[in-house]
Amino acid sequence: MSEIKKTFGIDSLYFFFETNENYDDLFLEILDQLEDLKAKFEKREIEFENRDLIISINEIQLSYLGKQEGFYWFKDSNEFFRIGFKDRYKNRGLNDIRVQLQGNGIYTVGINSIVELLKDLVKGCISDYMPVTRADLNCFVQYDLSFIKKDMFSTRKRKYSTINEIGDANSTQTIYVGKEPFKLRLYNKSLELKKSKKFEVMNEYFLNNGFDLEQTIFNIEFQMNRGHLKQFNINTIDDLFANAKSLFQSAMDDIRLLDIQSVSNERLINNKYQAETHPLWEEIKQEYDLKDFLQSALPLGRLKRKISIYDENKFEFEYISLLRKAYINNLTLDIDFLNELYFKAKESLKKTTTQKEMKKDYIEVIVIDEKTNLKENFRLLNSGELIKPLRTETVANLSDYELMVYLDKTSEKQHLSTRDNLIYTVAFNEAKKRNLLLDISSSEALK
After folding, report:
1. Residue closest to 69 by CA, chosen among 34, 42, 45, 96
2. Sorting pLDDT into bands at 50, 70 and 90, what band is 361?
3. What share of the chain is helix, strand, coil (3-state, %, to 5)?
4. What is the pLDDT of residues 124-166, one digit of tens each?
5. How far apart are CA 176 and CA 187, in angstroms?
6. Which of 72, 172, 222, 366 meets the CB 3.0–4.6 Å disulfide criterion with 167?
7. Are 35 and 27 contacting, i.e. CB atoms less than 8 angstroms apart?
8. What is the pLDDT of residue 86?
9. Burial of 57 per CB tally in 10 Å (0-12, 13-18, 19+)
10. Crossing angle of helices 279-287/237-254, nearest 10°?
């Protein structure tokens, strides 16, 4: 065993709750809350987006993300998890409650804590059966693996042979090996965190585990979807936890990093599979263990307080923290400026940056060609400019709410033609880019 720092875990976890006969009441309560909230906004003529619709289940508040594949998706205020609910009488090939655990929760309060919180959230409506649909088993290692190139891997099975490499001539940033339902991602975690919202969360996690933030950290991560997990008779979360070590070790054998110094150049070209496994790869494989990772847990009572309802105390804490951040960064603040922001905030309740408002900035006009008498539709902007409208919808300009409505409409037509499919794909990618969707396909989510 070397002194190279490593920590093992589960980077992503997707699963279902199996529901019982009481689920209907919960689902109808969720729909009622959404409709009541929409009615309140509409009555006061306040524009709203999905994130403004906040429901409460068992004293836990959830923000609405939108509807996709028949599921109504929500997230908690700390973004520890995302959870979707569907009508149990529709799309019966799927379970009724889908869950994705987020890194914010996994690396702060622990997987077991979030699972217990979720079980409490929907208690009385579920059984003990929790089928897993995706798990990303990983190892963070304090070692610069940028020397690795894609030809340094060997794979046991033909379907794992897809290998992509991102980087330059001197160093590798990311390597993907394989494809769903089983693939390896190896990437520079330090580099990724520089542009990640999880920067503070992950840095705290690494410091607590003895990592040096000044040195490079890489992530070795195996994504395993339902199809792959079932080959190992892993159906539930409990199955996954009990067999994670053997599952990870099998993955390290299936996709093997070679020690290219162990064979001649000629043999490396003609039959690289005879090369020995890289010592670090073998070391990580032998040491992988989730015992410490799964022991990280926060008592349910404390966890509930951590994601408590947004009230005056929480607002005061956030407001003071925001002001402190402004002063630390030498921003000029005074009472007049803060008052101006206050009135801007109030005024924003009556305005929107959605497509609806943008449509008010022009007048529809018809232009008739004197020679051909052909009519064309144009838009006369407030600036006096006359433009011809595009027939396509610019999804980037849509609000979250409008985008999800548009996505639902296009999903119904996506199979009609190639163009309809392209329109749906553009909308889907935009929604995914905004983190409005879970990265769970219908195929991997089947019972």
Report:
1. 96
2. low
3. 40, 25, 35
4. 999 999 999 999 999 999 999 999 988 888 887 655 556 677 7
5. 9
6. 172
7. no
8. 95
9. middle
10. 160
Contacts of residue 171, defined as CB under 8 A and 6 or more positions apart, other chains included, come to 146, 147
Q: Which residue has the higher pLDDT, 183 or 340?
A: 183
Helix ranges (H only) for 9-151 are: 23-43, 103-106, 111-121
The structure's pTM equals 0.69
Tokens matching residue 351: 């305005």
What pLDDT was estimated at residue 443? 46
CA angle 128, 302, 317 (to 5 degrees): 135
Name residue, tokens 């009609």.
416
Calpha distance 14→136 (Å, rounded)? 9
Q: Token pair of 243, please?
A: 């067999």
Tokens describing residue 40: 């309140």
C-alpha 69/C-alpha 89 separation (Å) is 14
Distance of CA 4 to the CA centre of its chain: 30
How confident is the model over 227-251, as pLDDT tens digits? 999 999 999 999 999 999 999 999 9
| The pLDDT of residue 196 is above 50 | yes
Closest to 70 measured CA to CA, from 93, 83, 86: 86
pLDDT of 400 strictly over 50: yes
Burial 279-306 (b: 16+ CB within 10 A, else e): ebbbbbbeebebeebeebebeeeebbeb
Nearest Cα neighbor of 110 from 306, 251, 395 is 306
Average pLDDT of the chain, as a whole number: 82
Contact 36, 53 (CB under 8 A): no
**Quick check: 353 and 399 in contact, CB under 8 A?**
yes
